[in-house]
């Protein structure tokens, strides 16, 4: 019994009822438009004085509603309402505007259904309670029977008076039952009509997989680069402590190497974590990281690199340091690429040689070239280690390309990043 | 010190790692860094040239990596050095592959200087398993599931099977002898015959093979 009461008047049933009444409210403008047609056709009769004419206006209004619901925003609107009022799980609905014909058709079907069922249930909700209330109190209020309510004649019989409260109560229950049934049906159909289509699901899954792949790659890269750097630093510190008294020159070098490595690693950590964090926001994972940019931070980078002992011969086009000329993602990635190129040169050339850095804009591409004479040992890795792989990944993400390898007497890293189409 | 110094070759593509290892090892009177290499190919040629006792080998190097360098060194030199893989990460399938290829053991780059020096001395002077617990973990995680037991498993006597399991726990010949209640010479014979039957180069490889054959779970 309580289960029946809950299914008729429980929170879920009440919310779904509200959803139906909302549908009725949305149907009103269409009914009014319908009545403008129905009235004159019926010979100028007052449409709202006749249930038949009202239903005719309603029937005429619904196709209109179907047509207007072909506008894309209908789906987000209805999905939002359904999610909150119908108790449908959020992930079974699509919140984007309907794009394809199929999606628009299904959305229109839903909207018409919502307004149709809502209009009927809302009409019943307005009409039934006063009538049922009258029936319930009829035996106890003689004035009602003598009034001008136009009640059917049989209600004056004694048996009718005994039964009328029961009939009134039954009508209220029937109304609630009707609303609950409509609400349940709508909730059941909502995922089919408003839910993501197969194409939506495939697209969403692909986007998720791609995002996950990027994040996994970044996480792996981070794990590797930070792990390697920290191991090397630990080893250097351990060695320095071991030879503290016997080889102060080594200790000095070790401290410098430790400083350099940790600084570089913290930078990498910052950049990658920034991307991973921003990955929560769909769309543009590059947007909010307070990452350094080529436009703002190149001078500082060059200054620090030179202070670290590397001679850098830099030729930088003015446009490359103009924040208005470079799209922010390009500027940020370009900074990282230059940074990686320089630290790579430092790693392999060992600081005794000069590195040439060229940053220019040609054919709508930002071009970064880092060259250093090939050092004696160790030979730079063809195709690259972690750092250079990171450079290639960054370039690819932006639709560009990176090449690294020996070019005559020098080792050259060359990266092209398109300036268009990266926003 | 009655031994001549242990001669070591360092192979790692990162200069920082090589300089640190050199500083730590060279500070010991009984250790001598005889050469360095930055790539796998270089490691092979340097080892051929200086004939060290121990090679500390990075796994991931440009060109020929540490695994292939290990294979080449062990396959081409008549009395090859003991090769210890030096790695950043403990649970690394490359390290496992290097052990399968015949490396005597592995060392973490974050290991402290004493552990490092101790490990070099251990592999140079004895045939005990280096860090048995770590090797076992690695083998248990990376050993391919291989349901068909290899032919050698059937050829091992019961006693030899027991010896192989004890080897996997890192016991020396003398300890195995004590555990089994036999003379050290007998234990040594058993170990030798286990190595011969499993076709393993040394204890590490025998233990790896035991794991791969599912020999360690069975009984």
Sequence-ordered SSE layout with sheet pairings:
The complex is a heterodimer of chains A (about 425) and B (about 220).
Chain A: H1 2-9, H2 11-41, H3 51-68, H4 74-85, H5 101-137, H6 142-146, H7 158-194, H8 198-242, H9 248-278, H10 294-307, E1 311-316, H11 328-349, E2 354-362, E3 365-373, H12 386-397, E4 401-407, E5 410-418
Parallel strand pairs in A: 1-2
Antiparallel strand pairs in A: 2-3, 3-5, 4-5
Helix pairs in contact in A: 1-2, 2-3, 2-4, 2-5, 2-7, 3-5, 5-7, 8-9, 10-11, 11-12
Chain B: E1 6-11, H1 15-26, E2 31-37, H2 40-50, E3 54-58, H3 66-76, E4 82-87, H4 93-100, E5 105-108, H5 113-125, H6 132-142, H7 151-155, H8 158-168, H9 173-180, H10 184-198, H11 203-212
Parallel strand pairs in B: 1-2, 1-3, 3-4, 4-5
Brief rundown of the structure:
The complex is a heterodimer of chains A (423) and B (219). Chain A has helices at 2-9, 11-41, 51-68, 74-85, 101-137, 142-146, 158-194, 198-242, 248-278, 294-307, 328-349, 386-397, and strands spanning 311-316, 354-362, 365-373, 401-407, 410-418.
Structural commentary:
The complex is a heterodimer of chains A (423) and B (219). Chain A has 423 residues and is of the alpha+beta class. Chain A is 64% helix and 9% strand. Chain A folds into 3 domains: 2-196, no CATH class; 198-290; 292-423, Heat Shock Protein 90 (2-Layer Sandwich), CATH 3.30.565.10. Chain A contains 12 helices and 5 strands. Chain A has a 5-stranded mixed beta sheet. In chain A, helix 1 (2-9) packs across helix 2 and helix 3 (51-68) runs antiparallel to helix 5 (101-137). Chain B has 219 residues and is α/β, with parallel strands linked by helices. Chain B has helices at residues 15-26, 40-50, 66-76, 93-100, 113-125, 132-142, 151-155, 158-168, 173-180, 184-198, 203-212, and strands at 6-11, 31-37, 54-58, 82-87, 105-108. In chain B, strands 2-1-3-4-5 form a 5-stranded parallel beta sheet, sandwiched between helices. In chain B, helix 4 (93-100) links the parallel strand 4 (82-87) and strand 5. In chain B, helix 6 runs parallel beside helix 11, helix 8 crosses helix 10 and helix 10 crosses helix 11. Chain A binds chain B through residues 224, 227-228, 230-232, 234-236, 238-243, 246-247, 250, 253-254, 257, 261, 347, 350, 377-379, 381-382, 385, and chain B through 13-17, 19-24, 27, 38-39, 62-63, 88-89, 108-110, 112-113.
